[in-house]
Every structure is written in C-alpha cells, then in structure tokens.
Amino acid sequence: MERRRLGTQGLVVSAMGLGCMGMSEFYGPGDEAESIATIHRALDLGVSLLDTADMYGPFKNEELVGRAIRDRRDRVVLATKFGNQRGEDGSFLGVNGRPEYVRRACEASLRRLGVAAIDLYYQHRVDPAVPIEETVGEMARLVAEGKVRYLGLSEAGAATIRRAHAVHPISALQTEYSLWSRDVEDEILPAVRALGIGFVAYSPLGRGFLTGRFRRPEDIPDGDYRRNSPRFQGENFAANLRLADAVREMAAAKGIEPSQLALAWVLARGPDVVPIPGTKRLRYLEENVRAASVALSAADLTRLDRLLPKGAAAGERYDAARMRMLNL
C-alpha cells in the first residue's frame, strides 16, 4: 500500500488506516476473535495505522488492540487519544485537558496497550476550560520523555490548531471527513495545510451509511449508536438515502463497491489525507483496502461534487450537545 506523510516531523503511515472503535463499543456487539483477526489481516495487507482511544469500551479497545499487536509491534503506527473522560462504569465525565490528567491518561494508555511509547497521541476533544497551550505543553513533555512520538488534535478549530502548533509541532489533525461531511474544507483543511499538518479522516464512509447497507432505520442493530444519530433519523434518513443511492449507482457503473468509491474520493483529496475506515469484520476490511487501488478521473470527481455537494447531508453530524464540543 502507498504510504503517506503526516506532518513534517517524520511520521509516515499507510495511505489508509484502520479505525478500531467499533470493535468494542457504539456499533453493536463485538467479537474479539474476529476483531483481532481483522487487525492482523490489516497489517498483512499493508495497513500500518491503527486508531483507538481510551474512551472506547471504555478502556477495553486499547486492551484489545494491545493484545492484537503484542507480537508485531514493529509493524504498527499506534494512535490513541485522551480527553473524553469516562468512568469505570462507562459514564461520561466531560472533556478534560488539564496537564495532570494528560499525564495520567497517557500512562494508563501505555499500560493497557502494553507498549513503551505511543506513536501518535491525540487530544480527543479540546477542553474549553483549559488553555490549549497548557494541554499541549504537557503533551510535549511526554514527547521529551519518550512516552509519545508525535502529537495530534481531534476536532479542533483553526485558531486552536495554530496556537497548539506554536507550542509543539502537531503532526496530524483527526476530524470527520467524507462525501457527506465536508465542512472541514472551509477553514480546517486550509489551516492545517498552511502549517504542514497531516489530516486523518475518520468516518470516511459516513458511519457506514454511504456503503448502502442501511435501507431503513430498522436495519441499524439494537444498541447501535447510529439509532440516535441525527442523520439516521426520520426525514433525514430518507433524504440521506438518496445520497447513498447516488453513490451506489455510480459505483455500480464503475464495477466497484459503494464503500470503495467513497474511500477513493477521500484518498483523492490529497497526499496529506489519510482515511481510517472502521470495521470489525474481515470481509469489510478487505473490501475497504481494495479502494486504495481505485483511480478516480477528473470527470469522476466532478460528478461526485455534483451528486454530493458540500452541505448535502440532512441533519447534523452529532446531537446538539456533542456539536458544541467541535471546532473549539
């Protein structure tokens, strides 16, 4: 698989990563054996970037990823996150960017992952109560101590990114980006490109909607986060289904899967963009990886812009409370 550079500090990863969140939470029940087999197969196919976070599970996803990579650590660029604080019972305790918490969270992640250093450490959400300089300052100390190699932010606003980067170089910004989530093109992408920061696109398949798997709200499994996601509700679902159908029809005409067309579009946004589609199943992993060999012409990209222009999706990305946590 092609490799791409994130930032200017030396971080190089596969052009496509693997999001591991759904293996432990949010997207229905998991299967540890299948999940570990999926991670192993991803590495065999040339996928080096594995993405997790302490909040997934909570805590269980880091442990799972740690078990999966124990005998193949040298093949992995390991990314995890802190900042969305949760209790042992799974309760959400808010966003925490205090320096003392940053250190505690990092040391706990290192233990769960069973590694000596985290390759890419993200602040999962910006804490509006703590100056970004204080949070990133502590992250920088973790780099100096060898516990972290590269720093990242997730869903941060352009001004915050600039302030953070002035404290210590930021190698990657992770934010949602797909055919139906293109708001980053206004300010965020131009800002990170001006600073030489790489962009990691999460949910590049529109939380699975753009794959065409969901034809009715009832198709979403019980206990799945998407049952309460605004874009999967009522009239929004029906409107967004038309977008998914447009992707499906264009993919069929090209002889590929809808997921492959959606991922190829993200990959075509630039050599500094790395999508991390999440899956816990071998079948979907292999389908996704084949998207790396799909070449889209200028005419294809123009057609996709026409079919799914920026702002085409009905509904917000998250509920109102979570939307207030973005782009701070």
List the helices and strands and how they pair.
Blueprint lengths: L2 E4 L4 E4 L3 E2 L12 H13 L4 E3 L8 H10 L7 E6 L1 E3 L5 E4 L3 H15 L4 E6 L8 H13 L3 E7 L3 H10 L4 E5 L11 H8 L2 E5 L31 H21 L3 H10 L5 E3 L6 H8 L8 H10 L12 H4 L5
Parallel strand pairs: 3-4, 4-5, 5-8, 8-9, 9-10, 10-11, 11-12
Antiparallel strand pairs: 1-2, 6-7
Helix pairs in contact: 1-2, 1-9, 3-4, 4-5, 5-6, 7-8
Strand order of the largest sheet: 3-4-5-8-9-10-11-12
Largest sheet: 8 strands, parallel
Mean residue pLDDT: 97
Model regions low in confidence, pLDDT < 50 over at least 5 residues: none
Radius of gyration: 19 Å
Summary keywords:
alpha/beta, eight-stranded parallel sheet, 328 residues, 12 strands, two-stranded antiparallel ribbon, single chain, 37% helix
Tell me about this structure.
It is a single chain. The chain is 37% helix and 16% strand. The protein has eleven helices and twelve strands. An eight-stranded parallel β-sheet has the order 3-4-5-8-9-10-11-12. Strands 1-2 form a two-stranded antiparallel sheet. A hairpin with a 5-residue loop joins strand 6 (84-86) and strand 7 (92-95). Helix 1 (32-44) packs across helix 2.
